[in-house]
Amino acid sequence: MTRLCIHNVRAVLPDRVLDDAVVVAEDGVLVDVAERAGPPPPAAVDGRGAYLLPGLVDTHSDGLEKELQPRPGVEFDVGFGLASFEGRVRAAGITTVFHATGYYGDDSKNRSIEGALVRERAIRTRMCDGQAQLDHRMLFRLDARDPDGLAALGETLEYYRAETVPPLVSYEDHTPGQGQFRDLDAYARLYLGEHDRTTAHQLMAARIAERDGRVWHREVALDWLVHRNGTVRVLGHDPVTADEVADLAAVGVAVAEFPTTLAAAHAAREYGLLVVAGAPNVLRGGSHSGNVAAADLIAEGLVDGLSSDYMPFSMIGAAFRLARDGRAPLPVAVGLVTRGAARVAGLADRGRLEVGARADLVLVTEDAGWPTVRSTWSAVDDRVLVGS
To answer: Model's pTM, two decimal places?
Structure first.
């Protein structure tokens, strides 16, 4: 039996902060969370009054892509990049990460189906090789207008048939003028900024025309997902209108990922969809593409979970920023990156400091108003692994 005891911590529970707490885990499961009643055992870890949080759950991380290709023309081996990124993720307090992997071609982001297949194989190998220091999972990004991507994803999902928790699939349409980039000027600034305005808009028009030639595939892809209901957990990506959310709900979509408007987020609540927003949006005070601010959605109680999107440390930073600014009590803010995010992923065994929960733990101090991760413990294969 492996046993871990951490004392002298401020344990962030779902509804309160428990001061001078003792947390005990055995074989990767929490067996005691309580106020200290006596001297700690000799082998106990002294938390020195720091906050103890559940391990963070990141349902959408693009970070591996950037780890593998940190600048144009530079690409690292996928095995090396995955191990490197794992260290970066653990240092951010994340113990469960869903690697967002696009099954489509997009030259502007250097994405390809072939690259997706390589990354998926590497991640699946890491899941099973006994060396992982955290729980690696997949978020499959399905381009609604890419027939080749749909075929490749269908083959890949055969490897996940035995999973007790259905894998996540994000249904997306990144055609300029849709979703996040319904503002065409915003799209041009972000992806075509090296061109003059006339050239940028010509390139954008060509992109739209090319993708409109495959608009028929949107219904094919959605119908394919409907028929896989129960074997995948579907996220509707960048919904804009209440009608769009209603259509997603009607076919069994479980989550509205990054709603771009207040109306879409309200509709998600009305139709029973969980809502994910971006943690970088919280830290920056708004969307980089001019859409609704995540903090405004949180203020109205419309967000269930925050994801890192492209910056791992943004999750814990956003939680403490929300608490510091008085937008949410610390237990509520932490819940957005722990138990709320776990609900989004369909993972009922983690994200809270409660007896019986998975013993993923993060020790955090607050320095000059910002959090610093001091230690991370991950429960993998019924054991607790100690991080730095």
So the answer is: 0.91
